[in-house]
Amino acid sequence: MRNIVAGNWKSNKSINEARERIAVMGAAMGSMPKDVRVMIAPPAPYLSELSGGERNGILIAAQQVSAFSDGAYTGEFTANMLVSCGVDFALVGHSERRADFGESDEIVAKKVRRCIDAGLGVVLCCGENLASRDNGSQESVIKAQLVSAFEGVSSEEMAGVVVAYEPIWAIGTGRTASAAQAAEMHSFIRSYLADRFDEDIAFRTSILYGGSCKPSNADEIFRSPDVDGGLIGGASLDTSDFQLIIKSDSSL
Ligand code: PEP
Questions:
Q1: Is 94 a catalytic residue?
Q2: What distance in Å separates the CA atoms of residue 193 and residue 45, rounded to the nearest whole number?
Q3: Ligand 1: which residue has its CA nearest to atom 4?
Q4: All residues at 6 or more sequence positions from 243 whose CB lies less than 8 Å from its CB, including other chains
Q5: What is d(CA 211, CA 189) in angstroms, rounded to the nearest whole number?
């Protein structure tokens, strides 16, 4: 099953709101398309409770993870800790982490390695800024991010990796990539995976689109064969909108 719709709640919601939304989503899972996996990335303080509770098949992701292993790193939480709490995935390399918290390609690569070694799934986020899109260098930017993130990653290890293409100029801006722009970049990423690994890995790896995806545009974006779902920020905060987006991502 390649299709995934993931909601990134960022730094939003109280624990009571988070509990309530997971309960509502869990109850709605029976009416969601069977070929789509649903993932939610709540704020870190809620991960242990939400992953340990009743979640009816919803995958739980951390919004970030430490580049270090367990040890004297005040304030960090590690991939091993997330696994021990029952967390399924971590977002790695989200553009807000890269821009606001100084996460370089090198740090992103370390995080990918930590997750893989701990047995934690990875949603590897990549995306170009507006200047790169405007000067036509978006493919080389994405390629450089992927080359760095997957340095030393084996084909077997790719089983736990999802890629999210998130053009920075479309995140939280209300401006979304056109279906054609998304299709083109997703196809580029899939070809890169085929070259770097093999056709089978390229076929099996989910490539999600993220950037102002909402019920009104999800259907069109998800129609491209190389778009396997979405990483949804703002629109995932509204449970009804999120459910509509999940329902858009069905091949049934
Ligand atoms: C995101 O932050 O990953 C994202 C895609 O946000 P938004 O949907 O709000 O653009």
A1: yes
A2: 34
A3: 233
A4: 25, 28, 32
A5: 17
Q: Answer whether 164 contacts ligand 1 (Cβ < 6 A).
A: no
76 is catalytic: no
Residue 245 · residue 33 · CB < 8 Å: no
Active-site position among 20, 94, 106, 220: 94
| H/E run at residue 8 | strand 3-8
Joined together, the tokens standing for residue 191 give 């070809």
pTM of the predicted model as reported, rounded to 2 decimal places? 0.96
pLDDT value at residue 252: 45
Residue 30 structure tokens: 């029976």
Give me the catalytic one of 96, 128, 157, 166.
166
6 lines ligand 1 (CB under 6 A): no
Tell whether ligand 1 has an atom less than 6 A from the beta carbon of residue 172. Answer: yes
Coil, helix or strand at residue 37: strand
Task: Centre a 10 Å sphere on the Cβ of residue 244 and count the other Cβ atoms it contains.
Answer: 16
- Which two tokens mark 198? 């093999």
Contact 221, 227 (CB under 8 A): yes
Pocket test for ligand 1, best of 89, 169, 232 (most atoms within 8 A of CB): 232
Residues of the chain with pLDDT below 70 are 251-252
- Backbone phi, then psi, for 219, in 5-degree steps? -55, -45
Q: What are the chain's domains?
A: 3-248 (3.20.20.70)
Backbone angles phi, psi at 241, to 5 degrees: -65, -40
Give 208's strand partners.
Answer: 164
